[in-house]
Design brief:
- The complex is a heterotrimer.
- Chain A is built from 16 helices and twelve strands.
- By secondary structure, chain A is an alpha+beta fold.
- Chain A has three domains: 118 residues, no CATH class; 115 residues, no CATH class; 171 residues, no CATH class.
- In chain A, a hairpin with a 2-residue loop joins strand 11 and strand 12.
- The longest helix of chain A is centred in the last third of the chain and has 39 residues.
- Chain B is mainly alpha-helical.
- Chain B has one domain: Up-down Bundle (Amino acid/polyamine transporter I).
- Chain B is built from 14 helices and two strands, in the order αααααααααααββααα.
- In chain B, strands 1-2 form a two-stranded antiparallel sheet.
- In chain B, a hairpin with a 3-residue loop joins strand 1 and strand 2.
- In chain B, helix 5 runs antiparallel to helix 14, helix 10 packs across helix 11 and helix 11 runs antiparallel to helix 12.
- By secondary structure, chain C is an alpha/beta fold.
- In chain C, helix 9 crosses helix 10.
- Chain C is globular, with a radius of gyration of 26 Å.
- The relative contact order of chain C is 0.10.
- Classes of the chains: A alpha+beta, B mainly alpha, C alpha/beta.
- Chains in contact: A-B, A-C, B-C.
- Chains A and B meet through helix 2 and helix 16 of A and helix 5, helix 6, helix 7 and helix 12 of B.
Chain lengths: 543, 374, 398
């Protein structure tokens, strides 16, 4: 800030203002929160027993750490592994066959070269690593590998016998489709990557591994199509992932909060999905995928508003049907947002906007209701939210029936008891159902929250207040950016060529370009073409 | 967070200019003093408006990338420019609060009579303050998003009135019955000051545009489109209400919208008109406020986002103070302001400045030529 | 950041604690369906409103009570009276759904139409209600009758007028904006439909009125009220009312009877009609020419002439043309001579077609109108004859 003559007097005030506005607010993190990293100790300086002691000490007295002595030829070695994480069957087989039996009885492993020879001979096919520091040994053991240390050798051998027990690939629980692939991601990252690679058999599909979470050391993979994705965005994602400084990461949501642009908003700035075909579509559209070990939900960045209105199923149905469904989604978003507040606003502030017969009917129904319209709406909405949450937590068998049906029944009973009016039940039911139309749960949540704000404002200023808050919401949405991409692209700024997949879905053969707001490297998906048409009759011949 | 240099895309400029010109004029009606020939007044105004727009564009093209304050600085020294900037920035803020007062009057007279006008205005200003705090780009995008709906509502209004057989073309005839004099009297100078002269506010925004040549075309087209819409609106008002009621109605389009009645179901749609007006006024007031904020930024050299909120609250307060009642507001706007404020600041000063800029540039060119020769 | 939080808290308190000024809960409002203006005895006006009892109008909750409440208050300004009604009623009255305005003959004849300014200025009162004159009696009696349709008098009369306009052409379809603009125009005088209460006034007040097959009291659309210089000057018959609409090109459909043979009538239904009026200044007086083009079909005939012959059709067309050209001309002459009020809007037509001449005489147009030369031409075309061709009378006659 320049200290010009005119500005000097206002400097202090401006500083105060700056603090008030906190545009560049970044706080210092106290240093004791940052975990100190373990020292790097090279094992070639340690004796065999000292190493064993260090490893035992690091792991404490945990019962699943096994340190067995083995003999390979004439050399003595110690094998360390966590028996809960390792596939003990295969391990025993390996120990039995490979090391103790098939190796030469006279083999001596005294140097690193010997170790390398042995490894190449026995484990060249299955993959091995040679480790140099205690840190690496510890992290390998934690990952589920076995580490073999030979007396006198300066490096340790690490082999992969990870037990990947987990859920089998099954149907997705959240984003179901009528027609389309029915496999979903699981908790194991490698299986997930497997599912993606099966769909995109392209050498440009790259995955980069990050270890995020100082204490949990979770594996996080970033995937992208090298030829298509914009390098700047990839670099941005990479740098943000590297900057994450947090102690624990369990779900993609934790990472989502850490890497998306810092803004105070209810709207999600990254998408998440459980479906590999959706992920594959997004990768081909030059988006970037973030897979976390331990969660079946993968993150997709950058995300714009229109992405939340699409479901992978859109591409698997007839384009007229998809367009229709998309329009329904937009309309139901508006309905879910505005209907209760419009009810409150019109009935309490603007009864002149209703046709006379409707108004008389509503008055007759509301004659005995003790509460004002606002309170009624709040009671019903909150009751419904409670029912909804309860429906999610209840065991599967019961949960499904409770949600909507329960709400309607309770609503009906309340109406008959005279607490709320019949119209209220209908309105709440329509709103709730409109909310369920969303393919993406995060976004529906945003809508739920804003609905309450709208109801409050509608009770103060009527429909004028509703309009104001809508403008506010649109302005807020316009200011959001997801990794530099405006949140409302391609609606505002209006990009004509991207309109083919926003409000309606034009046939696939007509969408020949990738979304331009993502600035992909290769713009064209396919040649611009029309749909196939029947062969033309040759000239001169009769039809 | 890097503060990106704000750029407005062409569609955003297009929609902003249209919304700006329609602003309050679409609901309040322009040129209704000319009675049945009011739409002809708008037609004449359209041509004048195109000329005015080209003039402002020309002024901006002489010194690309500079907003009006910087242009004045180029002509004179910084001290004089600060003085001019003070005048202009208070002018912009004054008009912004007048426009808001218009809207507040509409809401209080027609929609929410018991709510104090201060409250409705304050609510609107908070939203405007928030939008400007986020930047002019956000304003552009908001304009871009809402414009299709605004056009749709205007179109729907026309269709409904036509379908309901409320349009009575006999109300518009005979054309030019009293001759062209009343039309000209109404057009000059009132219609050139309102709404076309107010385009001067855009001289602050044009500094953000990229390619000037295409922008020029887009701007002229948008003035044309806005005038067409305004023309049809005025035509519709006279055709449905008749010259008598239209002249006496405070918000003619709202009264016309109340006539819509189709099949007993599609009735009572004044909300559409309120939405149209709200959007137009939001953008008009925001643009003026932005002009004022840029003036403050120019004087104090502090990014304007810091005082978007406070100044918009000041505008809210100011809009209550400027007039005691509605007729005071109208008289001030139509009679007093016209000759004291609008004509000098919107036309005389810019023409003067253009002249000086041209002279300076010519002098510079001559100097360079002399320098080259030597 | 803290300070922003405080700011937001204060803002929240501002919103939530200050209260909502315009809120009117539905339980607190009562819808007014009709308003009647009479001349007051102790004050200038007496305003009677008919407020609807929403529970009664809903079949689920109805319990046989009266569907409306009608009360009146006297006062000097209508606007004051409308807010005074809580002297009688428990709830707020809202006027935005008003369907009917009844003005008594007395008020209209005395020219006390200035109260209309309130109706125009008020933001609640809209433009979509019917205005009528109550003939031979008080305006409040029109509201104090129970009706078969929707139990409330206004709710019955309002669609009644619309349907009469559509089916036969008996109501001029006036709304406030039209009425006011015609009051101020020099070239047209306004008209309003006039109704009359037929039957026993006292018996009509109770719900028993509608329990009978032929109600004791019923509101009947009776005539057309004419205004001149803002005063009610006379009434025209229903036939003249239809002719008025026809001249104004507002006729939708109507039925005409023509005498095809002495004592026998044929009736014809007009389905489409277009009227063109030319009005010019000629020979020192207005020269008005009304051209009507209409289409229709035969609805019923009492004559035996075979309808499926071209000759007969031409004959009927000519009959219609002649009869109704004369009848319409008679209507105009009647108004010219008796009232000298241009209710047909010929002055406005002249303003459009012969502007300068009109401007010269507009201030005493009523007089000029009464001297005008009027020519009426009806050109009627018969297209169809219902779903029978020859009448059975043709057969029997043979």
């Amino acid at each position: 800030m320049e200290k010009t003559k005119e500005g000097r007097k206002g400097v202090k005030g401006m500083n105060y203002f700056k603090k008030l506005m906190s545009i560049n607010g970044k706080k210092e993190i106290p240093s004791d929160v940052v975990p100190t990293k373990a020292k790097e100790i090279g094992i070639d300086h340690l004796t065999f027993e000292a190493l064993k002691e260090i490893i035992n000490e690091t792991f404490g007295n945990t019962t699943d750490l096994q340190s067995d002595v083995i003999r390979v030829g004439n050399s003595e070695g110690c094998i360390y592994y966590l028996e809960t994480v390792v596939n003990t069957e295969m391990l025993k087989e390996m120990l039995g066959n490979t090391l103790e039996n098939s190796a030469d009885k006279d083999i001596v492993i005294a140097t690193v070269d010997d170790l390398q020879e042995l490894s190449k001979k026995s484990f060249g096919v299955s993959g091995y690593k040679l480790l140099k520091t205690v840190n690496h040994i510890v992290s390998s053991i934690l990952e589920g590998r076995i580490v073999i240390v030979f007396r006198g050798v300066g490096q340790a051998l690490s082999l992969n016998y990870i037990n990947s027990e987990g859920r089998a690939v099954a149907e997705p629980t959240t984003q179901t489709v009528v027609r389309g692939p029915k496999d979903s991601f699981v908790e194991d990252a490698s299986t997930n990557i497997n599912l993606i690679r099966k769909r995109i058999k392209n050498h440009h599909l790259r995955f980069e591994k990050f270890m995020i979470g100082n204490e949990t050391r979770t594996n996080v993979y970033m995937g992208y199509m090298y030829s298509i994705a914009n390098e700047k965005i990839v670099a941005e994602v990479r740098s943000r992932l590297n900057e994450i400084d947090i102690s624990a990461v369990f779900e993609s949501a934790n990472i989502e909060e850490l890497i998306t642009d810092k803004s105070i908003t209810v709207f999600p700035l990254a998408m998440n999905t459980e479906r590999p075909d959706a992920v594959a579509t997004y990768l081909m559209d030059s988006k970037i995928v973030i897979i976390i070990d331990g969660s079946p939900f993968v993150l997709i960045v950058p995300a714009v508003l229109t992405d939340f209105f699409t479901s992978p199923e859109d591409n698997y149905q007839n384009y007229f049907m998809s367009s229709f469904v998309r329009l329904i989604r937009y309309i139901s978003f508006m309905i879910g947002l505005i209907m209760p507040s419009a009810y409150v606003g019109v009935l309490t502030f603007h009864p002149e906007l209703l046709p006379t017969t409707l108004l008389l009917s509503v008055i007759a129904q509301r004659e005995d209701v003790p509460f004002p319209a606002v309170v009624e709406v709040f009671i019903m909405e909150i009751t419904f939210e409670i029912l909804r949450e309860a429906g999610v937590r209840m065991p599967r068998a019961v949960g499904q029936t409770v949600s909507i049906v329960g709400a309607l029944v309770i609503g009906q009973a309340a109406a008959e008891a005279g607490i709320i009016s019949n119209i209220m039940v209908i309105i709440v039911a329509i709103t709730a159902i409109a909310n369920f139309v969303f393919p993406n749960y995060n976004f529906a949540n945003a809508s739920r929250l804003i609905r309450f704000v709208l109801i409050i404002v509608a009770s103060i200023l009527g429909l004028y207040g509703v309009l104001l808050i809508l403008v506010f919401m649109v302005a807020h949405l316009s200011s959001l950016r997801s990794f530099g991409v405006p949140y409302l692209a391609p609606v505002a700024p209006f990009i004509v060529e991207d309109q083919k997949d926003v409000f309606v879905r034009l046939p696939i053969w007509s969408i020949s370009k990738r979304p331009s707001y993502l600035s992909p490297n290769i713009k064209n998906k396919q040649k611009p073409q029309g749909s196939p048409s029947p062969p033309k009759p040759e000239s001169g011949k009769k039809q | 967070m890097i503060m990106l240099t704000e750029k407005l895309s062409l569609t955003q400029i297009f929609t902003m200019i249209i919304n700006f010109l329609l602003g309050s004029s679409i609901v309040v009606g322009v040129g209704i003093e000319a009675k049945r020939d009011a739409w002809l007044v708008v037609l004449i105004g359209m041509f004048i408006g195109l000329i005015i727009m080209s003039f402002y564009l020309y002024l901006m093209s002489l010194l690309p990338g500079k907003n009006i304050y910087e242009i004045i600085e180029y002509c004179f020294s910084r001290k004089v420019a600060v003085l001019f900037a003070l005048v202009y920035l208070s002018y912009f803020i004054y008009i912004s609060s007048r426009v808001i007062r218009d809207f507040g009057e509409l809401i209080t007279s027609a929609i929410l009579p018991a709510t104090p006008i201060e409250f409705t205005i304050l609510m609107l200003m908070l939203v405007i303050g928030y939008i400007l705090y986020l930047g002019i780009e956000v304003l552009g995008r908001t304009a871009e998003i809402f414009s299709p709906y605004m056009f749709l509502f205007i179109l729907l209004l026309f269709i409904f009135l036509y379908a309901g057989e409320k349009i009575n073309l006999t109300n518009v005839q005979p054309i030019l019955s009293s001759g062209i004099k009343p039309i000209l009297k109404s057009a000059i100078p009132s219609i050139i000051a309102f709404p076309y002269g107010e385009l001067i506010a855009f001289t602050v925004i044009f500094a953000h545009i990229g390619d000037f040549k295409i922008t020029r075309r887009v701007c002229l087209i948008s003035v044309f489109v806005a005038s067409l819409i305004l023309l049809s609106s005025v035509f519709l008002i006279i055709a449905t209400l008749g010259e008598n009621t239209a002249a006496r109605a405070n918000f003619p389009l709202l009264i016309a919208a109340r006539l819509v009645s189709i099949g007993e179901f599609l009735e009572r749609i004044d909300v559409l008109v309120v939405f149209i007006m709200m959007l137009g006024i939001l953008i008009k007031s925001s643009v003026f406020l932005y002009g004022g904020l840029k003036g403050i930024e120019y004087i104090f050299k502090i990014p304007y986002r810091y005082f978007a909120m406070p100044v918009s609250c000041i505008v809210a307060m100011f809009s209550i103070f400027i007039s005691l009642d509605f007729s005071d507001h109208l008289i001030e706007g139509l009679n007093i302001d016209l000759f004291i404020l609008h004509v000098p600041l919107e036309f005389i000063v810019p023409i003067f400045i253009t002249f000086i800029v041209l002279v300076k540039k010519w002098k510079k060119q001559r100097k360079e030529e002399k320098g080259l020769k030597v | 950041m803290k300070k922003i939080g405080v700011f937001l808290c204060i803002l929240n308190c501002l919103f939530l604690l200050t209260g909502c000024w315009d809120r009117k809960e539905l339980a607190e409002i009562k819808v007014v369906a009709g308003m009647a203006i009479d001349k007051g005895e102790d004050a200038k006006y007496k305003v009677t409103v008919e407020a609807l009892n929403a529970m009664e109008l809903n079949t689920q909750y109805a319990s046989g009570n009266a569907a409306t409440i009608v009360e009146g208050i006297e006062g000097n300004s209508i606007s004051e009276i409308t807010h005074l009604f809580n002297e009688y009623f428990a709830q707020f009255l809202i006027y935005s759904h008003m369907k009917l305005l009844v003005i008594s003959e007395e008020v209209a004849s005395a020219g006390m139409l200035d109260f209309i300014d309130f109706l125009e200025r008020n933001r609640e009162i809209r433009d979509d209600f019917n205005i009528i004159i109550a003939k031979d009696g008080k305006a409040e009696d029109i509201l104090k009758v129970s009706a078969h349709y929707r139990k409330a008098s206004s709710l019955k009369i309002s669609p009644q007028l619309d349907h009469l306009l559509e089916d036969w052409g008996g109501d001029p379809g006036m709304s406030i904006i039209n009425f006011i603009s015609e009051l101020t125009l020099e070239g047209k005088e306004p008209v309003l439909a006039a109704v009359r209460l037929k039957g026993d006034r006292e018996k009509g007040k109770s719900m028993e009125n509608i329990m009978q097959v032929t109600p004791d009291a019923i509101v009947v659309v009776d005539s057309l009220a004419i205004f001149k210089d803002r005063k009610l000057v006379g009434f025209l018959s229903m036939e003249d009312s239809r002719n008025y609409l026809w001249i104004r090109n507002d006729l939708k459909t109507t039925s005409l009877s023509v005498e095809c043979k002495k004592g026998d009538y044929s009736s014809v239904r007009v389905t489409e009609s277009k009227t063109e009026v030319t009005s010019k200044w000629k020979n020192n007086k207005p020269d008005i020419h009304v051209k009507i083009k209409a289409e229709g079909y035969i609805e019923g005939t009492q004559c035996y002439k075979s309808v499926d012959k071209l000759g007969t059709i031409e004959k009927y067309e000519k009959l219609v043309n002649d009869t109704f050209s004369q009848k319409i001309k008679d209507t105009i002459s009647h108004v010219q001579k008796q009232y000298q009020a241009d209710i047909f809007g010929f002055g406005e037509v002249m303003r459009r077609q012969d502007y300068h001449s009109f401007m010269k005489v507009k201030d005493n147009w009523g007089e000029e109108f009464s001297n005008a030369d009027v020519k009426v031409d009806v050109d009627f075309v018969l297209r169809r004859s219902g779903i029978r061709s020859k009448s059975f009378l043709t057969e029997t006659e043979k």
